[in-house]
């Protein structure tokens, strides 16, 4: 079998890498699609990759794995939505755009919604597999543990707090929490690591970079997994990464989150955030049981084998339905895709 790993933004690299590894274990072929705009950031240069849609067309794939919202309808292969986050409340998460034959869902909360949509639209299938990006989340390497210890020792602190805001102007807390992050970083026992989304407003990033704070690091890591593993608490807003952190059974504090199922401390008063973070780090965590409910609904798999289940699901789909040569989509979407990726049909 031949797979296309379809990237549009750098966050897709870490999502798709576990799937490439599983594909190769089975003796199958994989080709990464990495657009020119992000090819310099592509970290797996030794992997088979291209920036040409013509190459994808000629590759004659059996399946296309997409952690995004769009994929060229004219490419051969089962078009598989594997998602780029766990925030079901984000605009468009449950929107059916007609690009995909198969949706691979992370847990019951998502599966129930997409199965209902599948009955309505009658043009795609749904399989609950867990999410490939999280395969590595549950196994913390010795290298990562050593990185945590070095950060604690070098900065002379006891705790690591990760601040990971979303980029959306209507949802982000980044513009509101500059002074709060500075105060937390000025504390003797806390190291604050800031991880911005790839799409974050550059002027906001610059404001954080210009802060004169000893215990503050701005991370350029493409894959946030290691930061999740080494941190004791996360500060965020309406970002899907909140759910990834909660899956590790760790506390979260958000500011004005619009999430549907909030099982963590969500504040509307920015002035209470610093004291809340300090209190939780001191052991006052009241959301343990509610976190466990979120884990059950959003991602009940902690075995690190979601990639295995995902490839199994694709094999089963092809066995039952075959490999489509293209995907029928509405005319206006065809125009959009052809304008974006090239007129191949």
Written overview of the protein:
The chain has helices spanning 11-25, 53-59, 108-121, 142-155, 178-185, 202-209, 225-230, 241-246, 273-281, 288-298, 306-321, 331-341, and strands spanning 2-6, 29-33, 49-50, 63-66, 78-81, 102-105, 125-128, 159-163, 190-194, 216-218, 233-236, 252-255, 265-267. The protein has 345 residues and is α/β, with parallel strands linked by helices. Helix 1 crosses helix 11. It is globular and about 60 Å long. The relative contact order is 0.16. The model has no long low-confidence stretch (mean pLDDT 93).
Q: What's the short version?
A:
Helix content is 36%, strand content 15%. It has twelve helices and 13 strands.
- Strand portion: 15-25%
Order of helices and strands: EHEEHEEEHEHEHEHEHEHEEHHHH
Helix content: 25-40%
In CATH, the architecture of the largest domain is: 3-Layer(aba) Sandwich
pLDDT averaged over residues: 93
Order of the strands making up the biggest sheet: 3-2-1-4-5-6-7
Major sheet characteristics:
7 strands, parallel
Number-wise, the strands total 13
Which ranges are low-confidence, i.e. pLDDT below 50, for 5 or more consecutive residues?
Answer: none
For CATH, the homologous superfamily of the largest domain is named as Glycogen Phosphorylase B
